[in-house]
Fold this sequence. Notes:
The protein has helices spanning about 5-15, 15-25, 40-55, 60-70, 75-120; strands at about 5, 30-35, 35-40. The chain has about 120 residues and is mainly α. The chain has 2 domains: about 1-60, Orthogonal Bundle (Multidrug-efflux Transporter Regulator, Chain: A, Domain 2); about 75-125. The chain is elongated and about 75 Å long. This is MerR family transcriptional regulator. It comes from Photobacterium indicum. GO terms for molecular function: DNA binding; DNA-binding transcription factor activity.
Amino acid sequence: METFKISELAKEFDITTRSIRFYEDMGLIHPARQGNIRVYQRRDKIRLKLILRGKRLGFSLAEIRELFELYDTNQSDNQLNQMLTIIDDKQVTLQRQLNDINVVMNELNAARKRCHQALNRSKPS
C-alpha cells in the first residue's frame, strides 16, 4: 500500500506541513502513526486534494467536513438529500460569483480599450 510523509504531501500540494497538521486537528484527515511519524494513506492524499479544491471554490472547512461525514456514513436518502442541498447552495453561490467576475472582466476589457484609444489619439502623427 502506497504511503506518504507529511513533507511529501506538503511539497506536492505546495502547502505547509502546518496546514496539513491543521486539517488533521480539524478531523478532516486521519493519518496513521508510527511512533511520532505521521503516515498518510492514499485516502488522506485524496481528501487533502478535495479540501484544497473545496477551499479554492469557497467551501468552508465546516462544509467540507460535513460533506466528508455524509459521504463516509451509510448514505440514507436523508443524507443524500442533505448533500444535494449543500451542493445546490454552493452551485448557486459560485454561479453568482462567476457572473460577477464576467461583469468585472468586461468592464476591465472596456477600460483597457479606452486607454489604448486615448494613447493612440495622443501620439503625434
